[in-house]
Write a structure and sequence with these properties.
Layout (H helix, E strand, L loop, with lengths): L3 E4 L12 H11 L4 E4 L5 E3 L2 E11 L7 E3 L3 E4 L6 E4 L7 H11 L6 E3 L2 H6 L2 H4 L10 E4 L2 H11 L2 E5 L9 E3 L6 H11 L4 E5 L8 E7 L2 E9 L14 E4 L4 H16 L4 E7 L2 E6 L6 H8 L3 H14 L1
Parallel strand pairs: 1-2, 1-7, 7-8
Antiparallel strand pairs: 2-4, 3-4, 4-5, 4-6, 9-12, 10-11, 10-12, 13-14, 13-16, 14-15, 16-17
Helix pairs in contact: 1-9
Length: 314
Amino acid sequence: MLKVAIQMDPIEGVNIESDTTWLQAMEAQNRGYPIWVYDFRTLALEDGILYCRARPVTLKQVVGDHVTFGDEVKLDLSKDVDVILMRQDPPFDMAYVTATYLLETVHPKTLVVNDPAEVRSAPEKLLVTRFPGLTPPTLISSDPVALVDFHQRHGDVVLKPLHGAAGSGVVKLKAGDPNLEALIEIHAVGSRDPLVIQKFIPAVSKGDKRIILIDGEPVGAINRVPAKDQVRSNLRVGGTAQPVALTPRDLEICKAIGPTLKERGLIFVGIDVIGDYLTEINVTSPTGAQQLLNFTGVNAAALMWDAIKAKRAG
């Protein structure tokens, strides 16, 4: 029996009908695993021991009455639990990065999913650059000269913050659009992070495919279709989930990246594919598992726990 701590945003606020972390937690409970939830801001490292303030939970699939809390306890994360799910949502800022450093002090004695060091070194929009030939033309930079030059060379482009999530800050610029430099300036006011500029893929109108991989192996996909006249297909900004099959190109992409994901300890991953191109590898808190279950019957959370159990047994 595994004892599980989940580092997440408040569980009281999750949508139990669509949230992936909820599905992972329910699957753990169904297997008889005790579960605690905690906020990453309660992590405390003292004399080499990592603690947190956590609450045990009992879950039920009832909208509006889905969680019952036990009394708060102080957990020694190196001794009191076997597995930690790191599932708080981005932003991938220094607070997030610091949490990965703290969790690294207990991993792998306590298995952290995903491996915190690898999460830190594999931001969603950067890891894809390790696989040339799979991605559309892409530039990552803070340099206005480089960004403008890329736009001039590639015409229609998509501009997005490097560490953004859920479609936040994503804009499409047509060839010759005069607003790029102003957008760069606006971004620089609030952030020192680089921007990502990527050649626009017209196939996005047909959807942005989310493929879930467990320990490097694809288990299924959903298609996220943007609203009419929109470029962002993320479900949180109005995209619609639809069933979709994996294509030979999808499987080719998964075969190319799967061994790297497995080697890095990235057990639960969601990749984004538009047309024939890999655009992101999501390792922080990937979504889509509930939609996949509803469309196909494939329970990615169950497959994740199978993989975790095998690693703990090994």
